[in-house]
Amino acid sequence: MSAFATGGLVLSLAVAGVAVQAYQPAMADACSWEGCAAGPRLGDLRQTTRPGEYRPLPLYQTVLWHTREAAREERARVRRAAVEGRRRLQGRIALWAAWNAMGTPYSWGGGDAAGPTFGIEHGADTFGFDCSGLTLYAWAQAGIRLGHYTGTQFRQGDRVPVTRLRPGDLVFFGEPRGVPNHVGLNVGHGVMIHAPQTGDVVRATSFAESPYYSSRYRGAVRPAVRAAAHGRHVRQAVRLATRAQHAIRIAVQGQRAPLAFHG
Question: Each residue of 150-184: pLDDT tens digit?
Fold first, then answer.
């Protein structure tokens, strides 16, 4: 390879942000590039088949290594972005489903992935949702399967600090010890959609402003992404979820409630 061609490749690598370093004889006692975590640099040495003999690593191998590493890093970045994007999308779909369920009666043990059902025991005569039945249904519309029990849902995803809550995240409440006994879907600005109790209906509540809920706050969970949703229905769901989120913020008094509370 000519000196002009070599210089052109080195310049191209420098422009692309690849760290290159000119060969120096003092590098003869450096580690072989296979053992260096940062990868090969221009002029790095490699051992020949003869013991104790080293030669500069060919430039094309240095270029090839960095090209492959850059491609690997880009693929990993795209995968992370795709997962994060799906989580945001699915949270909005779940919120939209919960918004459409507002006004549905509370029914102990009621609700499944398809919608409201008759409950059990004192909810057997009421067609509706209990708190975990509502969240189960809402997230099922986004392709996520949750258990019909608050304690189970508390373990079905990643814990999220209150300062990083997103629409659709599950917010949990209960005594300081033991499993939480209530769950709702976060809307934003300290507001949730939930099925409160027998005799009530699915509605929006400012849990950040409520002395009862703020003192019983146990944490939040973002359900794990297990299936991606696609197509026209997803686009429609996102539009409706955005409208629902905006409408709730307007409708709930104290929409700018602080997110710092006890629990």
Answer: 999 999 999 999 999 999 999 999 999 999 999 99
Residues 113 and 49 placed together within one structural domain of the fold: no
DSSP state of 115: B
Report the alpha-carbon angle 77-140-187, nearest 5: 75
Q: What's the pLDDT band for 20 if we cut at 50, 70, 90?
A: very low
How distant, in Å, are the alpha carbons of 42, 44, 63, 66, 221 from that of 37?
A: 15, 13, 16, 12, 36
Q: Are residues 18 and 100 in the same domain?
A: no
The overall average pLDDT reported for the chain is 75
Reduced to 3 states (helix: H, G, I; strand: E, B; else coil), residue 129 is strand
Give SS3 for 197.
coil
Strands (E), the chain: 45-47, 54-56, 117-118, 127-128, 157-160, 170-173, 182-188, 191-194, 203-206, 217-223
| Per-residue pLDDT at 128 | 97
Q: Does a structural domain hold residue 173?
A: yes
H or E, element range at 96 = helix 59-100
Summarised one tens digit per residue, pLDDT across range 101-119 is 999 999 999 999 999 999 9
Give the residue numbers spanning the domain of 106: 86-251
